[in-house]
Structure formats: structure tokens, C-alpha cells
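Whiteboard transcription, Tuesday session. T.W. wrote the C-alpha cells on the left side:
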């Protein structure tokens, strides 16, 4: 589909360095009008730190407000018949080296999230059959976010392959229960939803809705404009525009930015940032959203 779950090897192992401690949680980046830019990075093959290299030429604010580590997995333990959080070696490297991979971005005022993705094993966000099982997985997510100092969790309901290993098919209660439990455990952290998969049509249950618990949701089809149908979220927290930095043309990216601005939405989604300097490409969009070009600082 749109996101390939490849297991690319890193060319070199990341080294720990002495860096300044994380800034106080109250410290925020200077607010820029025009909404937030969100960027997914395939850390199997690219550095998350690339998101911090782009600033607005006018004002100096970071281009990207939210950087997302793509991706951890929801796996299935066939022995215990329970969903488990799995971090592959590349994701693990980012997390354990948080002092050099995560904190520097947070010190710039950016938020760093961990995206959770299915892994072909039958476990997913939509087939928990009890609140206890949903809470158990939510606890794993919250523990990880807290331990590594992450700003939140992102849900991407792809590649679960519901039914594998004797698992159940999606049900109406699972995702809302999971969000409910995670919000109780992370009352002040970000929860975001990549609007795709079975979860996208199972956003309300038992008088509660996903919009009661998630902070943001964004379109998952790159090169297109489509407003996520997440009741309860204001326009400022929705992203109808999504671009693949490597394949969406600048003409399309600028058109999507114009629609985003004209229609009053507050999120613009970018995917697949690499080490290549894309300041010129980003400037085409940033000039529309923020009234400024973008400067690249290696």
C-alpha cells in the first residue's frame, strides 16, 4: 500500500554522546501560524535527526512540529495468546540512544512520537476482546513512552492481517477501549491516529468515540486531500493533506497546502524524510502555510 514495512540495515551503529539534558516540559517552540507539520521517518534506513535540520527562514521556527519514529509493531505471542509491543533493532537503537536521537529534537521544541504498526501476526488494535486485554497492551505503550521520554503514541492500523495465528477479526469495541485505556495512562501525552485500516471505521462504541481520546488524526493516502472523519476533533487537529516527500510532486504538495490553508485545517503530513536536502521542496509548501521559505542546516 503506502508504507512498506522493510527491515533495512543501518550503515553504521549510532554512538552515544554527552548532550544537554532535555529541556523543561513547559518549554515550547515559538508558535507559528499556519498549523503544524508532522513527519514520519523510516528509521530502518534514515535518521530521525533529519527532521530537526529544517527551520523557517523568517522567524527561525522548526518546520516540523512532530517527528514520528516509524515504526514499532504490535506482535502476537502465540504461547500466551496476547498482543505484545515489539521494537526492531533500528527502533530500539533510536530509543536506547534517546540522549542523541530524541532529546535534541525535543530541545528544539519538537514532539517525538512512536508509531505502532501491525506485523502480519494477527494482532491489531481492532481485535482485543476484553477491556483487560486492551489495558494490558495500553500499559506496554505507556510504559515505553514514559521510560524513553517520548511525547506520545501514534496508531497505524496496517499489516495486522487479522485472523492469522487464530486471532479474531476486527470488532467494534476494541480500538475505542484501547484508546480509552491509553488516555487514562497518558493523560498529558499525545495520541495520534493515521486514518487508515479497520480502525478508521470503528471509531465509536459504548457512547464513547475516538475523538474523545486522540489529539490528532491525518489522511493516510499520499498525494491526496481527504479529511479524516474523526468526530470530536476540531479542524486545527485534523490533517487532510498528505505527501510522500520522495514521490509527491511539488505541484501537488503546493496544491494540498493551499487547500489545507483555505479550508482552515491545522495539520500537514509528510512521510519518508531522508538525509537529502529538501529545503527547496519544503519551501514551496512552507511559503503557503507559513509565509516563509525553509532553511536547511546540516
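and on the right, the sequence the group agreed on:
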Amino acid at each position: 500500500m503506502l508504507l512498506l514495512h522493510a527491515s533495512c540495515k543501518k550503515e553504521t551503529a549510532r554512538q552515544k554522546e554527552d548532550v544537554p539534558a532535555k529541556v523543561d516540559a513547559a518549554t515550547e517552540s515559538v508558535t507559528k501560524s499556519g498549523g503544524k507539520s508532522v513527519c514520519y521517518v523510516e528509521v530502518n534506513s534514515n535518521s530521525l535527526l533529519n527532521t530537526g535540520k529544517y527551520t523557517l527562514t523568517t522567524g527561525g521556527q522548526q518546520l516540523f512540529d512532530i517527528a514520528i519514529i516509524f515504526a514499532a509493531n504490535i506482535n502476537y505471542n502465540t504461547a500466551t495468546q496476547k498482543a505484545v509491543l515489539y521494537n526492531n533493532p533500528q527502533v530500539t537503537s533510536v530509543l536506547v540512544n534517546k540522549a542523541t536521537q530524541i532529546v535534541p529534537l525535543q530541545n528544539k521544541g519538537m514532539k517525538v512520537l512512536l508509531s505502532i504498526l501491525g506485523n502480519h501476526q494477527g494482532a491489531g488494535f481492532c481485535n482485543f476482546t476484553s477491556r483487560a486485554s486492551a489495558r494490558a497492551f495500553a500499559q506496554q505503550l505507556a510504559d515505553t513512552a514514559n521510560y524513553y521520554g517520548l511525547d506520545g503514541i501514534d496508531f497505524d492500523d496496517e499489516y495486522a492481517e487479522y485472523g492469522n495465528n487464530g486471532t479474531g477479526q476486527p470488532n467494534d469495541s476494541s480500538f475505542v477501549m484501547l484508546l480509552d485505556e491509553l488516555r487514562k495512562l497518558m493523560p498529558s501525552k499525545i495520541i495520534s491516529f493515521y486514518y487508515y485500516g479497520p480502525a478508521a471505521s470503528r471509531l465509536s462504541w459504548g457512547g464513547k468515540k475516538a475523538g474523545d481520546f486522540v489529539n490528532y488524526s491525518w489522511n493516510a493516502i499520499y498525494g491526496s486531500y481527504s479529511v479524516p472523519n474523526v468526530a470530536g476533533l476540531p479542524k486545527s487537529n485534523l490533517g487532510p493533506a498528505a505527501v510522500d516527500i520522495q514521490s509527491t510532486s511539488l505541484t501537488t504538495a503546493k496544491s494540498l497546502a493551499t487547500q489545507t490553508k483555505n479550508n482552515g485545517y491545522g495539520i500537514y503530513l509528510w512521510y519518508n524524510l531522508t538525509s537529502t536536502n529538501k529545503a527547496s521542496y519544503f519551501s514551496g509548501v512552507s511559503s503557503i502555510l507559513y509565509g516563509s521559505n525553509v532553511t536547511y542546516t546540516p
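Someone added at the bottom: The longest strand covers residues 66-77.
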